[in-house]
Every structure is written in C-alpha cells, then in structure tokens.
Design goal:
Largest interface: A-C, 48 and 43 residues
Shape of chain A: globular
Order of helices and strands of chain A: EHEEEEEEHHEEEEEEEEEEE
Helix content of chain A: under 10%
CATH topology of chain A: Porin
Oligomer: homotrimer
C-alpha cells in the first residue's frame, strides 16, 4: 500500500520555499508466508506449520521526504511477523529501525538497527536467499551447527552506516560501524563492495566484531557472484568465519531457472569446520509458482548431511550429532 | 480506514495479463473500548477502569488481492489493544495472524493462528457475545470457574482451516486441524456447520484437542440458534466440555431488542459441573446507545451465583468459592 | 500521513441521518530520532548511539469521528520507537492509549493510559522539553537522582481525564483521576490550569498519588511561564515533589532564539533536595537546524553538577555520587 501524500507541502514552514512542492510517500508494507512441513532429524520426524519458507514474514512502515537539491530524508521500520503463533513475545522493529539522510551524489548516512554489510552476499548469491530448506544461513551462520556465532551475523544494534550513491557505473558499496555501548560484545566494523553490469554481479564483504568477555573478535569474510543467462542464473558464494582457533569455510553453488510464471531453484552447500570433523553439506530443490507478483505457492525439499559432531539442522526435533536432517515444505507467500 | 489501491495493476509482472485490472484493498482497522466498572466478589468490592465491555479493543491490518478467475489471496493480522495500560507486554497479532487462498466456488484455505470453529457459536448466539458483564465465556470457557481448560477454547496456533464458499443456499461451515509440533497439548481437530435463512440461524460445532502430558483430550460440543422477530431477537446456546472424568454442561437463553438507535440485551446462563456441586448461574442486563455506526455508549450490570466450590467471577478481587460476583459497568466503544 | 476518509458516510446506518455527511480522519504518524553521543560520568567515558535527542521516537495511530451537533469521538494510540535496538521488548502503546468523547463547548472526556496533568508544564516551559542533554526530566523527575519517584510522573494507567473546551479566552485546563485497582500505588488525582494570550503563557498543576504499601502519597506541584519576544523566548519553571520527609524543589530558567531556519536553546536547572546535601545543577546549550518542517539536524552539550550523594546523570556508565556527568550529542530527527 503506497500512499502519495502532500503533507510536507501543505504544512510547509515559512522559510522553506524549497520544500513547497516536495512530494512525500509513506508506505505500509508486509509479507505473510505460511505453509506445512515435515522435518526428520536422525530417526525422529515431526509435522509442523512452517513459516517464511519463501520470504520472511514482516510488517513495516517506510517513507521518504524530498528536501530539495538532491537531498532527502527517510525512515524504515520493519518487524517480523510470526503467523503460526501471532508474535506471542510482541511485534517489534528488530528487522530494521533506521533514519537516513540521503544525497543523490554523496550517498546515504543511516543510523539505527540495520542489516550488517556482511549479511547481504549470503542473501544475494543464494538461490533460496536466507529462507526455506535451501537457506544459506543453515550452513553459513554457525560453526558446525553450534550457536557460537556473533550477535551481528545478520543485523547490528547502534549502527552508523554509509552507502555509496547510485549511478557509479555499476559499483555499489556500504560500510558500517556499531557501538558496543559498554558491553563485551557487539562493537562491529564492516564493509561491502560490489560491481553489477548487465547479467553479471559480484561482491565481497568483510567484518569483525568483539564477541566475548576476553575481547576476542569474530571475523567474517564472504564473496559472491552470479551470472544470468536468461534461461538460467548461476550463483556462487564463499565465506570464512573465524574466532580465536575456531574457523569455518563455507561455500555454495546454485542455480535458478524461470519456468513459465514460476521458477526452479537448486543449491549445493558445503561447510568445513577447520581442525575438526564437524562438517556438513546441504542439497535442496524447490519450485515457486507465481499466482501474481504478490502471491506465490511453493514446494521444496532439502537434505543436510552432518559429519563428526556437526548438528546443522532444519529445526524441529533435537538434532543428533552426525545424523542427517531432511525437510519437505509447501506454502503460500502473500505480500502487500 | 479502507484504502483502494491499484498496486497490483501498477506493478504487474510481464506474463500476468490476468492481473492487469485486479483491484486490491488494504484496510487498517481497530476498536478502542474503555469504561469504568465496580466489581464485588463475596464481600470485597473494587473500582476499576474496565476495557472491552462492548467489543474487544483491537488494531489490525487486512487485505485481499484479486487473482482473477474467482481466485483471490488475502491476509489478516489483528492484535489486542489494552487501553487501560497501553499493552505493557507488547502489541502482537495473537487475535489472528493468517494468510488465505480463496476461490468463489471452492472455498477458503487459511493458514496461521486463527479462531477455532468451536468458538464461533459462543459468540454468535450470545446477546453480549463474549464481552462485558454478560459474556458467554464467563461460564462457558472453564470448568466450574477453574482454569482447567484447553489452550484452544478461542484460538489455535499452527492451524490449517477450510471454509465453505458463500452462496450455498444458507449453509455455512468450516473445519480446522492444528499441529502440536511436538508439545503435549494443542493438537486440535474441529468443525462447525450452520444454516441461516431470513430471520433464522442455527449452527453446531465440535472439537477435540490433546490437553495434558498423558495425551488426554479436551472435547467440546456446542449448538446455538437465534430467531429475529424484528422487535426482538431470541437466542439459545448449549455446550458440553469434557476431559477424562471432568464434564460441564452450560447453556444460555438470551434476547436483544432494538430501542430507537440503541439496543437492550438480557441473558441467563447456567453451568452445571457434572458429579460435583461446583455450579454457577449468571444474569445480565445491558443497554447500548449508538451515537453512530462506529461509536456507542453502554451501561450494563450482571450477577454470577456460585454453588459449592465454584469460582465463576467477573475478575477484580480474589473470588471466594461459592460466593456471588457482581459487576456494573459503563463505557465508550469507538471503532475505526 | 493524514488520510481523509468518508468511511462513516459510506457505511451510514439507517437512522443516522446526522452522520451522512460526517467526515473522518485516521492518521498514521511518527518520529524517528537517532544520533551519536559521548557521555562522561566522573572519570568514565562512553560512546553511544543516542536516541530521542530532539524528540521522542514514536509510531502512532489516531482518528476523529464527527458525530454532528458539536460532538465527536476519537482515539489515540501511540508507542515509543527505540531505533538503536528496534524495540526488543516489543512495540506497545504505553505513550498513550485513549478513547475520547468531545463536545465543542463542554470539553473532552478521555479514558485510558494518558499523560498526567502535572507532566505538561515540565515539557511546555522547558527549552529542550523533556528530550536531550537539556531535558527537564533529568533533574525534575527524581529525588536527588534516585528513582524514588511515583509511577505517574509522566503518565498514568486507568485514567479518566477531563479537558476544558477551546475558546475560553485563553484559559485552558484539565483534570485526571486514576484507579489503583487494588494495588498499593497509582491512585492518582491531579489538575492543571493555564492562561495563554499572544506572546504570554503560564500554567500551574498539582497532583497526589498513592506511592507505597503504607499508603503514603507522592505530592507534586509545578508552575511555569514563557514570554515570546519574537527574537527570543524566555521560560521559567518551578516544581516541588514531596513524599513523607523527602522533598525536592527544582527550577529552571531557559531561552530559545530563532536563527535563520534554526533555533538556539539554552537552559539552567537547579534541584535542591531538602534536609540533604544531595543537590544538582544542569547547564545545556544546543542548536537545531531545520532542513524542513519534518526533518532537523541537531547538536548539543550539557553538564550536570552533583553535590553530596546526588547522582543526577545522563545515563551511560554508572554515575558516581557527587561527581559530574557531561554529554555531547548530535543527531537527526525525522517525523512523518
């Protein structure tokens, strides 16, 4: 729902002549994505109402105000929806909560809780993005399936971000610093730079963040690329995560292919926990049937293979170490 | 606030010609209902700011997208408002959080957190609905006033619902299954079917749900009917709830009568806890004065009589077993 | 975003002819205000992402329905935004959650969670309002920096408020009572009355509220005035807070001055905790640069001086008693 308003113009202050014809937009937007799934971890199986199989369910409010002279200001408030339970712990704006000052040729300054630069390659160069049975995060976020990762894998509190302006001949990029505010973890610094032209896209990103009381840093690096042949889009993604002596190298190869008004997606991922046998691989295949630009049906299946003490998992029943996790899922994704 | 948008049309994907003229609506809606009440339980009395005396306070977002060929998709997100305290534990979407696929002649498939089929008769065939001093839930929800009821008396997480299409000559109906997702409680199956024609309406519903670690099921059945004579509408509702050896039979007789732009409401309810003397009755009388379709003033009074160890109550001070609970209430209900 | 709707007209009930041409407005509104600050308490310094330096971040929904004959009904739902963290404990409506019945010449009856009458002078006669390094609340809310204040310094649950109608020749006023609902604290009664004409404004307010298990009352009184010379606006505010033997007298003198499209603000505050050396003073200076009516940049600095055991503080690191607290802050405020 996009609503054109002339609020700024109607309420123009004396002395802001430049603003008199400014046009502003406030948008209420969202996605509800729910389905059914069956997950089998080792020998235990469970039927679930799954959510977010295709896109992360959300409700948000955003807007931009044209300040004239190439300058604009904007806000973005976005919170997760949990359609299977109705957000019992409260709707919030932890997906994104920012205010921005933007200039056409200087770039954007953004303050608040936001995605970290190192997140974006994990989404952009993954056929399933970070959703469903082929989500890159299933292997890329953790260390061998454990939770010993940083609080800033996806987003960071207290961040100051800078984004390059558009129209730099295909070059895009962003940098971020975030304050720990006296806490032992969460002092983040990271950046991403990429180049996109025609069917080609590639980007690299790196970050480090304080991540324990001893002040040790969690360091991550990732690089991704895609090439769109029209009938087929190929993707590759590589990532390293490291904290003191723990290190993981993860990569994927993927493909998406349009079929009528739908799309086939396939991915293979491999996570190698260094100096440990706690490795994992993931294979997933899915089909998305678009009923419209806003509404889609989907079906997908995936299998994670764990080695050693690895516990990469689709969730559901407790994941036994070294045993496979499989999932099949079907659902509806509706956006507004 | 209903906002007509042509978002779908404007954003039509190549290949979705059928969607080119689709019209979509996103609606922001809500109710704020607050007042004052005095509750006396046994010999203790308390003055309160009451809420939801006429309608449950809420804020929601819903929308429908026409997909062509009789097919449409929709979402519904609705959360409770608590105007006396401002929702201190966080606004959420636990009233309803669903995504739907609907076909004019096939019916509706609905996924997410939703009302259970067995709830609707308790609302539809009760003069006060489930609000205020004559709310059906005061006697119908529990066992003798205790809280030993299922988590799915009103709504269920993880549900898949099916609704019959409209235009079946007055027949309406729905069915629901919900997953326990590995928990001991909450595996629900239920259905409701009804028939409405002219001034007559009647429906029956039944459900069972796993409700303790031993796997015992809470089983409920209810049936209701109403007849609208124009100057008077009569209602009757009957319900049984059962888990292992605990059983309760509850019924009500009620009437609503239009008076100018207002309405008088009266109800008598009786709850009989089987093989126990923990029974209760409720009598309530109220008047609603409509200032407009959206805004109403109301005043109402009710008395609950408890027998044996029953603790049916209007809330407020601790309810002593076997003692009466009385309430008087006046308030404003404003919807948008 | 203000949206004119004719919903009431379109949905007019038979019998509500008076409503047929009623026009209603529902407004979605908000502010996102974030920046950076450095706070030094005693010898410890901390860098922070600050929020609400100029205005309190918020998201809200409000509306008014014209009922004809000078009567109208309305609602106001408003919750805090926390842009640095995205509201991790859940977005709610604790800033304000009310329903109102209003008559042009009789005044307004308002029910729900709302600001108390005694709050408004602390905001209206303070150059920084209750935000940023010169916020009146930094010295006016507490007792010597301690938290031994009432739950109703700013707002109250369970309130019934009455507001005088406009157009009383410059006189304005309001009164409020709130129920404790069986709790030991929170039974509030208070009122405010003021007079504004041309460049002059002045108001007084007083309240008392039950504030401990013994039933002792927290009593507050405040008075403020301002005079706008055009090139300069002078403000003065005086307040007393008392509970049993603890008493604090606090006052401020302040000034705001327009400079081009911006404004300079300066304030001096003094808090005197009676029969104790736990006193404090605050000095702050700031500049607001308006990019438009909706968007502003700001920079400000302040210093709190604590005496005796006083711990008045800008937050950040633990405040040592009797030591100064200083803050510098810069940020962006965007409203919609």
């Amino acid at each position: 729902m996009k609503i054109q308003t002339l609020a700024a113009a109607a309420a123009t202050l004396a002395g802001f002549a430049g603003n008199a014809f400014a046009q502003s937009t406030v948008t209420l937007f969202g996605i509800v994505d729910a389905g059914v799934s069956q997950i089998k971890n080792g020998s235990e199986s469970r039927k679930l109402q799954s959510v977010d199989g295709l896109s992360s369910s959300r409700l948000g409010f955003r807007g931009i105000e044209d300040l004239g002279g190439g300058l604009s200001a904007g806000f973005h408030l976005e919170g997760a929806l949990v359609p299977d339970t109705g957000n019992p712990s409260g709707y919030n704006f932890q997906r994104r909560s920012t205010v921005s000052l933007m200039h056409k040729s200087v770039g954007e300054l953004r303050l608040g809780r936001d995605y970290v630069p190192t997140f974006w390659n994990l989404s952009a160069f993954s056929p399933f993005g970070t959703n469903g049975v082929g989500a890159s995060g299933l292997l890329f976020y953790g260390f061998g399936g454990s939770s010993s990762t940083a609080p800033t894998i996806v987003r960071s509190n207290n961040s100051i971000g800078y984004f390059l302006p558009r129209d730099l001949g295909g070059v895009y990029g962003q940098a971020m610093v975030a304050a720990a505010e006296g806490a032992a973890t969460g002092k983040y610094v990271g950046a991403r730079v990429g180049f996109a032209t025609g069917p080609f896209d590639a980007a690299v990103a790196a970050s480090e963040v304080t991540n324990n009381a001893a002040g040790d840093k969690f360091k991550s690096f990732n690089a991704g690329t895609s090439y769109n042949f029209g009938f087929l889009k190929l993707m590759a993604l590589y990532s390293t995560s490291k904290q003191t002596t723990t290190e993981q190298v993860t990569w994927l190869l993927g493909v998406t292919a349009p079929v009528g008004s739908g799309e086939i997606r396939a991915v293979y991922m491999d996570a190698d926990r260094k100096n440990s046998g706690n490795d994992g691989t993931l294979m997933a295949l899915g089909y998305v049937h678009n009923l419209s630009k806003r509404t889609a049906l989907y079906g997908q299946a995936g299998r994670i293979k764990n080695e050693g003490g690895a516990t990469f998992s689709y969730g559901g029943p407790t994941q036994p170490a070294g045993r496979p996790s499989t999932a099949i899922e079907a659902g509806i994704r509706h956006s507004f």
